[in-house]
Specification:
Layout (H helix, E strand, L loop, with lengths): L1 E8 L3 H12 L4 E4 L7 H5 L6 E4 L7 E2 L7 H6 L2 H10 L4 E3 L4 E4 L4 H13 L3 E3 L4 E7 L2 E6 L2 E10 L14 H8 L4 E7 L3 E2 L2 H7 L6 E7 L5 E8 L3 E3 L1 H7 L8 E4 L6 H11 L5 H5 L5 H9 L13 H12 L1 E3 L3 E2 L7 E6 L17 E3 L7 E2 L4 H14 L3
Parallel strand pairs: 1-2, 1-10, 2-7, 10-20
Antiparallel strand pairs: 3-6, 4-21, 5-6, 8-9, 9-10, 11-19, 12-15, 12-18, 13-14, 13-16, 14-15, 16-17
The structure holds dihydroflavine-adenine dinucleotide.
Length: 394
């Protein structure tokens, strides 16, 4: 049996970064992945440009049953540390919006950088490798792989969540946690588009492709101000992806389609200046014409001129456009979700090292655990920060 100081399962963002750090610190590291390429999600991310971190990393941007868990790792290895690494590799980047940092050229540069860092640490990378079983032995852990048996003093699980099974996602990490008696919190898809009930979907399908700035509020009061996109299946866009992580089945969300304007004041002003102007044309000054036409066909916007719009109708119209209550039918699920909420309970882990409190030598890093960030580079930063914290202990 070949023996290593550390075996890391999952050559994604967290696994590669952890392997590189541990290798460079002198550990003999084996990095295993079931895919044929490392970092497949990194390559897909940010539209191929990888939104690798955010300028405004803040523990408040992470969902977890224990909101304090992420603080230590984010403080010890933050966005500026990773930006420093990216800069050392001469990778050009830019801020797109809301502090989101993207490569100017390609996400491949981030993968190449991580591979180079692993090579610098002498990491052995074994791709297309299935882990058949994991057990304990006198020196730590014994793993049966397809075609080989390996031993490790320490075992790091970096196998990610369930989102995008096409990119290698698997419940492997949760199963290992359960095998060792650790609690796994229920999982669900996050950062995912909403699907709609049939009548509303049919009514809105004609709007597929229309995007508007919006403020969306969840039942718990959490709100995001970003763009909302109508799609053939329902609602998407950054505002919807963000709020999806805070939404529970059966709940309503409230949508303000005119976050930048005082609609009542605008209508009063327009009525004074152009009383015969149609309400439809007036609203089209503030919203996409297709959206206004569709809402009118749905009976949400009366077919009247401004002078015919009575105060009661105006009040109802303002409520429709600024507090539009939508009850999603569900989400598109793991197939299109960017992340998985829930996972290995952080109460089982040390927030300083990511080691399982009850299983010395076993670590969980990245998305497999119950820490999930907002859209915008927060999830990769959690991968880097948790991996770095773990590597210091290997
Ligand atoms: P990750 O999923 O990266 O890696 C896990 C690895 O484990 C995979 O390589 C998988 O093949 C391997 N594995 C799983 N089971 C295994 C098994 N049984 N045996 C061996 N190997 C196994 N985040 C962000 O901050 N900015 C962004 O721009 C984006 N964009 C984005 C786009 C898309 C399309 C998706 C799906 C996701 C994002 N994300 C994102 C989220 C981000 O990709 C995610 O949070 C991190 O990749 C999580 O890193 P991990 O290393 O924990 O898991």
């Amino acid at each position: 049996m070949e023996r290593f100081d550390v075996v890391i399962i999952g050559a994604g963002a967290a696994g590669m970064f952890c392997a590189a750090q541990a290798g460079q610190a002198g550990c003999r590291v084996l990095l295993i992945d079931n895919g044929k390429k490392p970092g497949r999600k990194i390559l897909m991310s940010g539209g191929g440009r990888c939104n690798f971190t955010n300028l405004y990393i803040d523990p408040a941007a992470y969902l977890s049953r224990n909101p304090h868990f992420c603080k230590s790792a984010l403080a010890r290895y933050g966005q500026w540390d990773f930006i420093g690494l990216v800069d050392r590799y001469g990778i050009a980047w830019h801020e797109k919006t809301l502090g989101q940092l993207f490569c100017d050229d390609s996400a491949q540069q981030i993968v190449d950088m991580l591979v180079a860092e692993c090579e610098k640490g002498g990491v052995t990378m074994r791709l297309r490798s299935e882990v058949l079983s994991v057990g304990r032995d006198d020196d730590g852990f014994a793993l049966a792989l397809n075609g080989a048996s390996v031993g490790a003093k320490k075992l790091v699980i970096a196998s990610g969540g369930l989102s995008m099974p096409g990119l290698g996602a698997s419940p492997f990490g949760y199963k290992i946690a359960e095998q060792f008696g650790l609690k796994v919190l229920p999982t669900r898809a996050g950062l995912v588009p909403f699907t709609l009930h049939k009548p509303l979907l049919e009514a809105l399908q004609a709007l597929a492709g229309v995007s508007v700035p919006a403020v969306i509020t969840a039942a718990d009061g959490t709100r995001f101000r970003e763009n909302l996109l109508f799609t053939h299946r329902g609602l998407s866009g950054p505002a919807v992806l963000q709020i999806s992580s805070y939404w529970q089945p059966g709940e309503f969300v409230s949508i303000n389609l005119l976050p930048d304007s005082d609609l009542a004041a605008f209508l009063n002003e327009q009525r004074g200046a152009h009383p015969n102007q149609s309400l439809k044309n007036t609203l089209a000054m503030q919203l996409p014409k297709r959206l206004v036409e569709r809402l009118q066909q749905l009976g949400q916007i009366p077919d009247v001129s401004l002078k015919q719009l009575n105060p009661r109708e105006q009040q109802a119209l303002v409520a429709t456009l600024t507090e539009w209550r939508v009850q999603p039918n569900g989400t598109e699920g793991y197939r299109t979700a960017e992340v998985t909420l829930g996972g290995v309970d952080t109460d089982e882990l040390s927030s300083r090292t990511m080691e399982a409190r009850r299983v010395p030598g076993l670590y969980f890093i990245g998305e497999v655990m119950d820490v999930t960030g907002w859209l915008g580079g927060y999830n990769f930063q959690w991968a880097w920060s948790s991996a770095w914290a773990c590597a210091q202990d290997l």
